[in-house]
Amino acid sequence: MVTKTEFSMQNVFQLANIEKACFGKDAWTINNLVSEFHNEFSHFFSYWDGDKIVGYACVRIMYEEAQICNVAVLPQYRRRGIATQLLSAVGDFAKDCGCERCELEVNTANTPAVQLYAKCNYAVEGTRVNFYRKSRYPSRDAYTMVLRLSDEPAEQ
Ligand SMILES: CC(C)(COP(=O)(O)OP(=O)(O)OC[C@H]1O[C@@H](n2cnc3c(N)ncnc32)[C@H](O)[C@@H]1OP(=O)(O)O)[C@@H](O)C(=O)NCCC(=O)NCCS
To answer: If you measure from the C-alpha of residue 147 to the centroid of ligand 1, how many angstroms do you get, rounded to a whole number?
Structure first.
């Protein structure tokens, strides 16, 4: 089940565990998570297995644009549609907030994530060369991927 996540240190500790399991030394720390929770533009969504958070997504809503900062699922819970449900909840929320598009950057070599976003109707809008200062993947380039939320046709 996906819920919007309110700030509590208990939730932060759970999210920090997911970060560590998914990103190792590049993980957001407890301090990073606390400050993100206190960012007025940021919203967290969690997927729960009982009382345990097993996946989460973070989105910043800035006027008509939603920027997805992170999506992560514990390794032992992957390929069950959890990230797909998180992205769907984020997209619905962004649309309710009046956003016209959801945007994100993803390492071009992070195949599971690129395929996840493509399956959730995000389209590659461009490539940012050397976007990452350092990278755990063979590439430092990022795709900018965009999901259009408004029913208006895209400007040419
Ligand atoms: C990317 C990630 C969030 C996917 O989570 P998930 O819950 O396993 O994703 P889902 O089960 O919803 O998968 C949906 C689709 O994504 C694609 N996908 C997911 N994992 C994949 C993999 N390992 N290889 C190829 N495609 C993959 C598939 O198209 C999949 O659909 P299918 O299972 O019907 O084939 C997860 O692998 C993860 O946490 N990775 C580490 C953190 C990360 O890189 N986050 C993204 C940062 S931008």
So the answer is: 17
